[in-house]
């Protein structure tokens, strides 16, 4: 969805600028008209025109508006202009060597007038001041740059600080090189033509070296770095891929920068426009060749597809690159840049997202990133995306030669629709930005580790409360942001949202009458949460439903039974809720001993075992009050029934009781206290004795079943 909004942004921005341009002019101006416009932009010419207009008679006003040409006329004019451009450029290619020979003669004459000695002095000063000053800077800062490479990364803040200092050192080196090179032009008087050529090449060199420095900063660790490769990268890239793309990108940018400088020098040498276009397009074939080589030799790890699918993708990319060169050569710069941005914008945004996530990743030994890092990641990611979109929009406006401020004042139907569409996209992107911040904050709070918090403490209760309420709060905010963003976007498009809101109110009343059970569930859930009746992770029982609370929605609660089944219970059907996970649990159980047992001894043994359990480091956190014998519960037919009691944390009573029973069995055996069980003594003949034996065995089995059922019920 976000990629679709971004592409719509680019298309609408390009369409709006194109439409505005079409309203201003019916066809692309020819070369003579462009020359006239260039002269009219000269301040001296403008002053002369203003003085002449003041001296001459005023023009007669006219009330007739110039009719806008039809779409077919504009299209025909555009095709004619494109055909003339291609024809003039193609005709200039055979005559280009003659123009180059003429320019060579001009340059030779200037160099001859300068002299070999002076030319050598100028060039050597240019090289010595530029590269020499940079070399001195590198020698002076070598120890500091080495310390940056060895600096340990103990937190995300340290990673950002180290990356910023590395970037400053790289920029400082380039700035010193540029200042030293420019010093050669300030110290000596250069021939005009040679000065223009050297300045153009200096700019190209700075662009190339700046690209190389940024690539080294983003994808390569500093020299002398110890540790993993990715620990010092800004963009997570494999080493082999980083080396491959560094070479191709630097070659592409360097070739483009020097080619662009050469085409600019042709203006100073007096080349007409068609010859400059021809030279630019011929140099562009080199860029196309570099791009095709990168497409066909790219690392295989970059593609999830292999074999024929990879070849098909390479063919599609080749056709796309050739089409880009064709659009550029045909003079369709607007379409050219739209095609470029449609491909590069999603890649650039994904790369920025990966870089932000890589920079903000938790350091070693930190399991979960703090909440502020999650919010910072969203802000940086959306900020990078916004900067890319704004830069693309202004570049498209520059290519289409349209003033965006002036476009906002136009009141045509098409302009109003385009402004509304762009405003709607901005609103949706802002809504997505705020939603991502809220989501990151809530998810960070839910993922906050709780292992170090003592169970039952105030902090543990607060965390449980947050885990219960935050998902509901997140869902409510999502609905609110979606509704507000949708209504605001519709208002920006020109829709009247007042009737929509009124209709939504009437519809809401109708839905309220027709879905009373749904409304009852939602309202009941709100009161359950306000009363803090249960929280996520607690074991509750309501009627025939019981289990651990796993999650909530607006109308229901999800319970996980201890045997596995999951219940989804609407809030309206819960009724009275029995919470078995709050504060403490009193566990009571019975033990049968024989009538000849020493009860005082049994009491002391039980008290001792209770103290031992309370001192056990594994069980102590779960015991609130130790186990003790409360006394004789009743006298049975065959045993004395003793009652035991202990207080534990909720959910831990079964674990503590099992340990207690095991120790009681061992201690009672050692103390000579016998456990009672029903017995039957039978006397008589052998047949009667066998029958009695069977009855006694059946009685034992039945008693064991009853005791097991009683224990399970407790």
CATH class of the domain at 585-677: Alpha Beta
> What does the overall shape look like?
elongated
Tell me the quaternary state: single chain
Strands in their spatial order, largest beta sheet: 4-3-2-1-5
Low-confidence stretches: 3-9, 11-28, 56-66
Named CATH topology of the domain at 585-677: Alpha-Beta Plaits
How do the helices and strands follow one another from N- to C-terminus?
HHHHHHHHHHHHHHHHHHEEEEEEHEEHH
Q: What is the percentage of strand-forming residues? A: 5-15%
Please tag this protein with its features.
714 residues, alpha+beta, Alpha-Beta Plaits, five-stranded antiparallel sheet, three-stranded antiparallel sheet, 21 helices, 8 strands, 68% helix, 8% strand, elongated
Q: What can be said about this structure in brief?
A:
The chain is of the alpha+beta class. Helix content is 68%, strand content 8%.
């Amino acid at each position: 969805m976000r990629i679709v909004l971004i592409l719509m942004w680019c298309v609408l921005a390009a369409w709006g600028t194109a439409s505005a341009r079409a309203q201003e002019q019916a066809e692309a101006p020819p070369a003579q008209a462009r020359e006239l416009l260039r002269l009219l932009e000269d301040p001296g010419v403008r002053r002369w025109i203003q003085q002449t207009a003041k001296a001459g008679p005023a023009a007669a006003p006219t009330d007739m508006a110039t009719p806008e040409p039809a779409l077919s006329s504009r299209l025909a004019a555009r095709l004619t202009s494109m055909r003339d451009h291609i024809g003039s450029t193609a005709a200039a290619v055979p005559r280009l060597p003659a123009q180059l020979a003429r320019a060579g003669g001009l340059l030779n004459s200037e160099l001859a007038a300068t002299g070999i000695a002076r030319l050598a002095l100028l060039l050597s000063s240019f090289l010595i001041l530029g590269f020499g000053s940079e070399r001195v800077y590198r020698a002076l800062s070598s120890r500091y740059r080495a310390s940056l490479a060895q600096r340990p990364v103990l937190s995300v803040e340290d990673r950002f600080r180290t990356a910023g200092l590395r970037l400053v050192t790289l920029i400082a080196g380039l700035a010193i090189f540029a200042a030293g090179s420019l010093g050669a032009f300030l110290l000596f008087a250069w021939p005009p033509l040679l000065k223009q050529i050297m300045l153009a090449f200096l700019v190209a060199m700075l662009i190339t070296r700046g690209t190389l420095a940024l690539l080294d900063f983003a994808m390569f660790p500093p020299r002398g770095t110890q540790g993993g490769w990715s620990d010092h990268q800004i963009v997570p890239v494999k080493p082999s891929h980083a080396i491959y793309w560094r070479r191709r990108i630097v070659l592409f940018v360097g070739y483009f920068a020097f080619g662009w400088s050469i085409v600019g020098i042709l203006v100073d040498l007096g080349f007409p426009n068609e010859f400059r276009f021809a030279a630019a397009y011929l140099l562009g074939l080199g860029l196309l060749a570099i791009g095709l080589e990168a497409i066909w030799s790219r690392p295989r790890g970059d593609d999830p597809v292999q074999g024929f699918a990879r070849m098909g993708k390479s063919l599609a990319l080749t056709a796309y690159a050739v089409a880009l060169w064709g659009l550029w050569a045909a003079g369709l710069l607007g379409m050219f840049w739209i095609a470029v941005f449609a491909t590069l914008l999603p890649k650039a945004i994904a790369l920025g997202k990966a870089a932000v996530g890589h920079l903000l990743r938790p350091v070693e030994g930190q399991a979960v990133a703090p909440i502020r890092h999650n919010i910072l990641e969203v802000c940086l990611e959306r900020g990078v995306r916004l900067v890319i979109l704004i830069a693309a929009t202004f570049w498209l406006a520059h290519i289409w030669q349209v003033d965006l401020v002036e476009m906002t004042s136009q009141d045509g139907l098409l302009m109003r629709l385009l402004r509304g569409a762009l405003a709607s996209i901005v609103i949706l992107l802002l809504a997505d930005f705020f939603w991502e911040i809220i989501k990151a904050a809530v998810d960070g709070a839910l993922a906050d580790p709780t292992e170090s918090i003592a169970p039952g403490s105030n902090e543990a209760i607060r965390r449980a409360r947050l885990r219960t309420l935050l998902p509901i709060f997140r869902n409510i905010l999502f609905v609110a942001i979606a509704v507000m963003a949708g209504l605001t976007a519709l208002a920006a498009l020109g829709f009247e949202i007042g009737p929509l809101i009124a209709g939504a109110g009437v519809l809401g009343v109708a839905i309220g009458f027709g879905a009373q059970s749904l409304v009852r569930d939602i309202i009941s859930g709100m009161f359950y949460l306000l009363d803090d009746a249960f929280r996520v992770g607690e074991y509750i029982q309501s009627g025939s439903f019981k289990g651990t609370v796993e999650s909530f929605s607006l109308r229901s609660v999800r319970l996980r039974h201890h045997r596995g089944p999951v219940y989804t219970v609407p809030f309206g059907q819960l009724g009275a809720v029995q919470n078995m996970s709050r504060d403490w649990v009193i566990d009571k159980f019975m033990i049968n001993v024989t009538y000849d047992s020493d009860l005082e001894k049994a009491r002391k043994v039980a008290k001792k075992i209770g103290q031992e359990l309370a001192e056990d480091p594994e069980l102590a956190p779960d015991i609130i009050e130790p186990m003790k014998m409360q006394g004789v519960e009743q006298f049975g037919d065959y045993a004395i029934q003793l009652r035991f009691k202990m207080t534990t944390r909720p959910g831990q009573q079964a674990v503590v009781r099992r340990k207690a029973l095991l120790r009681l069995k061992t201690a009672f055996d050692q103390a000579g206290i016998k456990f009672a069980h029903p017995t039957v003594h039978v006397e008589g003949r052998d047949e009667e004795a066998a029958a009695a034996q069977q009855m006694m065995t059946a009685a034992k089995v039945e008693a064991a079943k009853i005791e097991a059922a009683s224990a399970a019920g407790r």
